[in-house]
Amino acid sequence: MANKGTLVIVESPAKAKSIAKMLGTGYEVKASKGHVADLPERDLGVDVERDFAPEYEVKKDKKPVVDELKRAAKGKDVLIATDPDREGEAIGWHVARLLELDPSRPMRVEFHEITPRVVREAIRKPRPIDQSLVDAQQARRVLDRLVGYNLSPLLAQEFRRRALSAGRVQSVALRLLVEREAEIEAFVPQEYWTVAGLFESTQARFKAMLYSVEGERVQTAEKFLLTGEVQTREVVERIRQVPQWRISKIDRRERRRSPAAPFTTSTLQQAASGRLGWTAGRTMRVAQRLYEGIDLPEGTVGLITYMRTDSVRVSQEALAEVRKVIPQMFGQPYLPDKPNFYSAKKTASTQDAHEAIRPTSPSRTPDSVRSYLSEEEYRLYDLIWRRFVASQMTPAVFDQTTVTVEGGDFVFRATGSILKFDGFLKVWGRESEEEADNLLPRLDEGSPARLLALEPEQHFTEPPPRYTDASLVKTLEELGIGRPSTYAPTIDTLEKRLYLERNGKTLKPTPLGKDVVRWLVEKFPRVVAYDFTATMEDHLDQIEEGKVPWPKVVREFYEPFMEEVSRLPRRTCPVCGRPMEVKVSRFGQFLGCTGYPECRHTERLEAKRAAEPIGEPCPKCHQGELVRRHGRYGSFISCSRYPECDYSRDEAPSTGIECPKCHAGEIVQKISKRGKPYYRCNNCDFLSFDRVLESRCSICGWNEIQKGRDKTACSNPDCERYGGPDLKALSERRGNGKATPPRFAAKEASRSARRNHATNAKRKTLSAKGSNADGKKKKATQTSNKPAAWKDLEPFLARLNLPAQEAEIVRRTQGQQKAVPEAAKALNLPENEALTLFRKGMFKLRMAYGRSKKEAVTA
């Protein structure tokens, strides 16, 4: 093996880089960059007649990757080290199939943390590819395709809109949101009252709440005793007439609070949502980076174990290490006599194949690696480290006291609690202000008390709260719906399809989302039934365990599902009477006759809808009223007197993200002509064709954008990490120097890409053939895209008449944006103001440098 060398194939380039450093010479590590093969995009890709055989094809963007893997595999032993779950096993199986390897021979390497010891040990113990795991993933993929391929066109036809989708998990999650919203809308607040009393006993004052009247509780889970002001005033007056009060009982007890288990995927997403305010997607993206490896002085190391798991198990090695760390850092009283063991909550989808999410080395504290992490990587690692260390510490101990005060027919109660020993809270901290100490004075049982004051207070019951990322993930897990790997993508998909919108942390279904759920519940109740979806997850687990063949599970779902599909009335062609169906062209989806090519009748999916009044006067002309109109790019608000009055504004789902450019607007999601989402500011001309994330660029501080499954880039066109199209060039090409309107930007970007492709092809042809009579090859003049270095820009600092502060900021930073905070401190300027000056100055320098290069070429 060592003579030929070994090729190790992983999923991501970051993981490949980390593992290559650990294995050293004799090993070549390549990345598949995710799934290399999948079902075709435009066809069903499932042969129903042949036991639902999937018809896989290499993904278009992965053909160069597969070719590279084939070249690298020649003459080498091949090991496949994709992620340790169903998806990873399936990716490995596809890679083995495309490289024509025998999946039954030992080639699959599995590890749950990326550290030198674990990786080297796993490399020595390869196993065959687990076909049962692959079958479980195939069954899930085929089921999702059968549902999506059959339902999505029906949705598009029903609602006359593009980019609609339905799925086993996403539709059930959307149903949860819609039903919660219905509860909120139907909720009727109920009035109730509480009465607080201020008492004095043995010269000590304390506050107690009215607990019961004539033996009946004032408040229970089912009802309230005091429901109106008149009734409450009468009770208060009766209380005032009581001549004597006494402390009838004092109950003192010690209460212990044990630490929670280490994180699973679900509990990590919930904690990150609650403590950090992050979405599930953001949490998983940052966790992926921590798992795949961080460059430290001792080498590249994965800081956490695999982050897609529902297990709370911990290895013996990790337990031994953390039990050494706890007494060293916090003292012997914080270490329990025996390790704490936890069991996962058993649901239909719970599996216990992996470890919990934990630091790969508990002795590697967050502060010891902070300088090597971005701010968000540090915050998440700190959360994971604290949770794991806390899970192996002693319980917190509270002294809790309950004082009962009686007088006549009335009973008051006061409860106090004080932390006696902090235990695991030393690391984890208290969750909220409600856990703060509430100390009662020292009182004696049986002693008299004096009522000093009464304070009645009115309250109203509140509707159930809207779901957040955390509570939705928790509910899905409790219902046994989905897997750890599906929670974040499910929420992302609902957001992309405009089925939900974010309002701060909460998730609210849009009118479209409500309509889709209403239609699905009526037409396909089984698909969106909670118990059915959970049972299907259980069947997938049985496939994974090798207990049932996957085609059997798919068939049991498919046959009744297609009966429901066949019962739906289809739209008929007005020309020939044949059924209409949703078709796809390079311009997007449309309705076409199934009689094509004999009948060529087509219809747009977007049917024209009447304007809907929203009950507001026009703020511009003050004569018309505002109406909601529906255009090809989504809904918008305009004046009813259009075209006499041209007032309009966007009505697009807000992402809740502040615009990184103007800091005054919010990023909203819009739909392009082809049904694809894009993102823009509702206040300025900021635009992105990629999803704008909450996370910040480590270089310039602007928001990041999502590029592919696990990659991010910067949304700032002036940043070296910028990952969007050159909108400035597109604007200049339009010839007016103005920002490209968002509705044209996608078209311009597409045209620009085609134009550049044609130009490059022409250059290659000229370069190959040559254009001189003597047969010499003609070299196309190419302009280097390499950004100007500081040494290139510095001479223009003296030539340009920059404002003093701009010049000083640029000079001190030498063109490095990461040096702005230090320069701002030296010049006693706010950091955001210094950053603005830096950007202005650098822009002017780059423009001057560009002009000089252009003049030199012309000369």
UniProtKB/TrEMBL annotation:
GO biological process, one term: DNA topological change
Annotated InterPro entries: Topo_IA (IPR000380), Topo_IA_2 (IPR003601), Topo_IA_AS (IPR023406), Topo_IA_cen (IPR013497), Topo_IA_cen_sub1 (IPR013824), Topo_IA_cen_sub2 (IPR013825), Topo_IA_cen_sub3 (IPR013826), Topo_IA_core_domain (IPR023405)
Region (Interaction with DNA): 165-170
One Gene Ontology MF term: DNA topoisomerase type I (single strand cut, ATP-independent) activity
Tagged with keyword DNA-binding: yes
Positions of the catalytic residues: 306 (o-(5'-phospho-dna)-tyrosine intermediate)
Family to which the UniProt record says this protein belongs: Belongs to the type IA topoisomerase family.
Known role: Releases the supercoiling and torsional tension of DNA, which is introduced during the DNA replication and transcription, by transiently cleaving and rejoining one strand of the DNA duplex. Introduces a single-strand break via transesterification at a target site in duplex DNA. The scissile phosphodiester is attacked by the catalytic tyrosine of the enzyme, resulting in the formation of a DNA-(5'-phosphotyrosyl)-enzyme intermediate and the expulsion of a 3'-OH DNA strand. The free DNA strand then undergoes passage around the unbroken strand, thus removing DNA supercoils.
Subunit structure: Monomer.
Name of the molecule in the record: DNA topoisomerase 1
Gene name per UniProt: topA
